[in-house]
């Protein structure tokens, strides 16, 4: 980035700083609106709120109804249900070079989980649980960091940079999907189809608790083993039954033996269901598990091991079936992703921010985009912690530096095009 661009960005950064209070108030309203992944009414209400609030940006809205969610239940069946719309805003969509800004607006919190209300509080906490020298201005509540804080960063950054005239020659799309927390099963094909239209992407998941951005991510898959035995009377003829729960219990040690972090595979046996009346030999039981893998080789080993377990335990008049898939592939940093990382580092430096990188076991849509050929950095949202818990929070003072970094990234992307330099070069 040139010295001239640095000077041109100063009014952009000033606008971002001046709009912080409005952005925080907007974020509080968004987080007070429930948007659980499985509550289609709440998702549609959230989408309407976002459409109204993003309207001031003055860029074209595209609201797309999605196919139904595809969810794996305890009976090895794929259950389907409706979801919210995919929201897209496009600036200069016919540009030769385009950037995608993306995050989800669903959360893991049902309305029944507790009050969907945020609390602003001063926190003296660091990622390891100890005290820091000065408290942070924290917003505690559902979705504050994951990922409505990321939506706030997108809006703050794009409104400022679009008004500057610095990005008139590039395309910028904002995409918000309603189903990331449950595997992106409804929006995935639409996202896959659009991935080839962009040169680079930023995804607005929260940073790690210490402020680091994520480099490599593990792949993630959800699976279910269903055991079918034979029912019988527990008193009169139990020997004629085939106890599905007992057989399932004998299978689980084989699953836990797959857990080998040194080989790049972690296994979490997360849920067991089965049985019925206590005077009946149970003829049905199921176990659900999540598997994380470091790379594609570990993924293939895990898939082979799961299939082998299902095959070996089909014996003694028991039927064992396996369903599931890796819904998020491993994300490994390659040359194309490194170029995005270097561009993010330079953009952050313009706003006085230092970028650190770390790996994580968490999955997100950035992994899918990379797998589809769209290089990205996927933790461009706010700093925070306590994700997926009642203590989820974001650091409100992180919103301005995050938005300034995004604005500088977009301006740098546009300048590279105008000078003929390679993006990130």
TrEMBL record:
Residues 217-312 form the Peptidase M20 dimerisation domain. Keywords: Carboxypeptidase, Hydrolase, Metal-binding, Protease, Zinc. Its EC number is 3.4.17.11. It holds the Pfam family Peptidase_M20. Its cofactor is Zn(2+). It is an enzyme of class 3 (hydrolase). PROSITE patterns: ARGE_DAPE_CPG2_2. Gene3D superfamilies: 3.30.70.360, Zn peptidases. This is Carboxypeptidase G2. It comes from Rubripirellula tenax.
């Amino acid at each position: 980035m040139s010295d001239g661009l640095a000077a041109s960005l100063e009014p952009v950064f000033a606008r971002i700083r001046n709009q912080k209070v409005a952005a925080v108030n907007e974020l509080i309203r968004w987080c007070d609106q429930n948007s659980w992944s499985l509550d289609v009414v709440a998702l549609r209400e959230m989408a309407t709120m976002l459409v109204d609030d993003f309207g001031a940006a003055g860029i074209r809205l595209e609201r797309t109804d999605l196919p139904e969610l595809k969810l794996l239940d305890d009976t090895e069946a794929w259950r389907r249900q409706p979801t919210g719309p995919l929201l897209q805003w496009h600036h200069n969509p016919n540009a030769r070079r385009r950037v995608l800004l993306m995050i989800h607006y669903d959360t893991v919190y049902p309305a029944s989980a507790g009050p969907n209300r945020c609390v602003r509080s001063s926190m003296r906490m660091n990622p390891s649980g100890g005290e820091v020298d000065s408290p942070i201005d924290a917003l505690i509540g559902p979705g504050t960091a994951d990922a409505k804080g990321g939506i706030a960063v997108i809006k703050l950054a794009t409104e400022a940079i679009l008004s500057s005239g610095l990005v008139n020659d590039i395309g910028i799309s904002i995409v918000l999907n309603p189903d990331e927390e449950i595997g992106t099963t409804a929006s995935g094909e639409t996202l896959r189809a659009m991935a080839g239209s962009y040169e680079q992407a930023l995804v607005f998941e929260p940073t790690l608790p210490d402020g680091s951005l994520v480099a490599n991510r593990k792949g993630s898959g959800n699976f279910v083993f269903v055991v079918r035995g034979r029912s019988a009377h527990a008193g009169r003829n139990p020997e004629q039954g085939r106890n599905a729960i007992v057989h399932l219990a004998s299978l689980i040690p084989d699953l836990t033996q797959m857990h080998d972090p040194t080989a790049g595979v972690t296994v979490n046996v997360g849920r067991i269901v089965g049985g019925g009346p206590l005077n009946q030999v149970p003829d049905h039981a199921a176990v659900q598990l999540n598997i994380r893998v470091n790379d594609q080789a570990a993924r293939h080993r895990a898939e082979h091991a799961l299939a082998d377990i299902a095959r070996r335990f089909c014996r003694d008049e028991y039927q064992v079936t396996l369903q599931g898939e890796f819904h998020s592939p491993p994300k490994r940093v390659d040359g194309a992703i490194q170029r995005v990382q270097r561009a993010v580092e330079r953009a952050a430096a313009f706003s006085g921010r230092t970028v650190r990188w770390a790996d994580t076991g968490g999955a997100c849509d950035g992994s899918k985009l990379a797998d589809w050929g769209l290089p990205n950095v996927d933790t461009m949202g706010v700093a925070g912690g306590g994700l997926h818990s009642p203590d989820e929070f974001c650091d409100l003072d992180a919103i301005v530096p995050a938005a300034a970094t995004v604005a500088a990234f977009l301006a740098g992307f546009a300048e590279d095009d105008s000078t003929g330099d390679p993006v990130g070069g």
